[in-house]
Amino acid sequence: MTLLDLFDAARAERGDAYAVNDVTYAALHTGSLRVAQRLAERGLRRGDRIALYCENRIGFVYAYLAALRLGAIVVPVNVLYRAAELEHVLGDAAVTIVVTSASTHPHIEALPAHQTLLAEELEAWANDDDSSSTLPPHAPNVEDDAVIIYTSGTTGRSKGAVLTHGNLTAIASQVVVAWRWTSRDTLYAALPLFHTHGLSAALNGTLTAGARFICDERFDAARALATLRRDDVTMFFGVPTMYVRLLEVLDGPPPALRLCVSGSAALAPDVFTAFETRFGLQILERYGATEFGFALGNRFGGPRVPGSVGVPMPGMRVRVDAAPGEIGELLVNGPSVARGYWNDAQATAAAFVTDGDGMRWYKSGDLALYDAERDVYRIVGRLKELIITGGFNVYPLEVENELNRLPGILASAVVGLPDPARGELPVAFVEIDRPVDAEALRFALGERLASFKIPRTIHVLEALPRNAMGKVEKQRLRELLAQKL
Predict the structure, then answer these.
(1) What is the spatial distance between Cα 302 and Cα 314, in angstroms, rounded to a whole number?
(2) Is the pLDDT of residue 97 over 50?
(3) What would the mean pLDDT of 445-454 be, rounded to a whole number?
(4) What is d(CA 340, CA 346) in angstroms, rounded to the nearest whole number?
């Protein structure tokens, strides 16, 4: 079965029930068919790529479901991306149509021409009672490509992880089963729909469970707390930063929730403890990635162990590539694992390893340890120099490449600074050949990169520390950073 099959089953049983915000399952189905008709009229065909570059809104959901109905491939795009990132993603995926909004459209106007549609226009189509779909419904196969989600790699260029319809079904089914999700639940989240956490867990999980998803455009702690106090809201999904902010604004009794899930970055044990003390609920931390959805999660029925990511999700297998009790790279296998990277056979081959039994494992790049005493896995570091800030991935080489393009910069290096609220913050060190203004550099980067990738501070050095091979020794930079704090 595909995600569309699961959605149709929920619609058949609960057509008048709310699906997303104040849109019912019946209206969501009818609206997405109307949008599919219009997209087909504009040339979108099976296998074509359609980029969704807009904020959280119902138009995103209509476009997503409509594209899946047509057998097209959805490319969710981070709304914080700017020229450099957009050029690469849209070009690499050879996108046919880009869905934007009034707020995001200005950022693609200067790029090479693409057929663009406004999400506001799609919403009007969906609600046009005089419009109907005459398209025969497309029944995608589970092996068909469904989405391409771009995630940066060690080369600094984003790679498109290809998830099939079968992958999406597996991910949604796993979270529904693992978290005892039912049609009686109402989830509140302000997770971006362009991200796996928001799309694969929050939206797809809701449609699979026949539940309701109250989807906010952006996270505001006070507004979130007020929503969570509603009688019908039972679940909250967030990143660690959001839980820190909720602790800051809590006044009076906490909301009565049955489940809070955290992911996309490591949850500090002291945040876990503080939340349990003040909200009376243990956060369920899980571990996932764009390439496989969610491989590990703390047990719904407990124990939920602070600092751990629990046990394999339903149907998933994991192993640590090391001797028992030692730290090694975490390998992942299961029905949710992406088939590979879009048009990148080399990256795909490098990302997988086949064992002696012929089983194909995805190499996560994360260092893990199996805690046999508590029967949980712990993520203890990363093989790659990935910086995770507020749930978003920052790859140093990408930022360094943009820094090195700026006047006066001879060389640069970016490292992560631990931060209690956002997990880590990117910090840059630069070699220069003329005086530079750090704030001017940060402003220039803001024209090329998403805001979360901009270094919090830029330190000027006479020379970056290098080894005998000329490679920058980033550990020495981290030590220097610690001395400056």
Answers:
(1) 16
(2) yes
(3) 94
(4) 10
The pair of structure tokens assigned to 470 is: 């000329």
Backbone φ and ψ of 209, nearest 5°: -80, -15
Neighbours of 424 (CB within 10 A): 19
Q: Is the pLDDT of residue 469 over 50?
A: no
DSSP characters over 327-362: -EEEEEESTTS--EETT-HHHHHHHEEE-TTS-EEE
Tell me the CA distances in angstroms from 276 to 180, 306, 456, one per residue in order: 20, 11, 31
pTM (two decimals): 0.86
Task: Write the DSSP symbol of residue 241.
Answer: H
Tell me the per-residue pLDDT of 212-231, one tens digit each, with 9 for 90 and over. Answer: 999 999 999 999 999 999 99
Decide which of 325, 346, 371 is a domain's last residue. Answer: 371
Q: Are 69 and 24 in contact (CB under 8 A)?
A: no
Distance CA 418, CA 450 (A): 20
DSSP letter string, 65-131: HHHHHHT-EEEE--TT--HHHHHHHHHHTT-SEEEE-TTTGGGTTTSSP-EEEEHHHHHHHHT-TT-
Q: How many domains does the chain have?
A: 2
* Residue that finishes a domain, picked among 371, 398, 420: 371
Are 19 and 206 spatial neighbours (Cβ–Cβ below 8 Å)?
yes
What domain range is 196 assigned to?
3-371
What value does the mean pLDDT take over residues 134-161? 80
Which residues lie closer than 8 Å to 201 by C-beta, 6 or more apart?
171, 175, 191, 237, 261, 263, 288, 293, 294
On whether residue 379 sits in a domain, the answer given is no
Domain containing residue 456: CATH number: 3.30.300.30
How many whole angstroms separate alpha carbon 149 and alpha carbon 342?
9
Distance (Å, rounded) from C-alpha 402 to C-alpha 411?
11
Helix axis angle for 119-126 and 25-41, nearest 10°, is: 120
Residues in the chain: 485
State whether the Cα torsion 443-448-449-450 is positive or negative.
positive
Residue 253, both tokens: 């009794």
Query: 17 to each of 13, 21, 75, 86, 193, how far by Cα in Å?
Result: 9, 11, 29, 37, 22
CB 211 within 8 A of CB 405: no
One domain, residues 77 and 113? yes
Dihedral angle sign, alpha carbons of residues 345, 288, 204, 180: positive
Q: Are residues 325 and 439 in the same domain?
A: no
Contacts of 243 (CB under 8 A, 6+ apart): 260, 262, 267, 271, 275, 283
Q: What is the mean pLDDT of residues 290-296?
A: 97
pLDDT at 155: 42
The string of pLDDT tens digits covering residues 331-386 is: 999 999 999 999 999 999 999 999 999 999 999 998 899 999 999 999 986 776 78
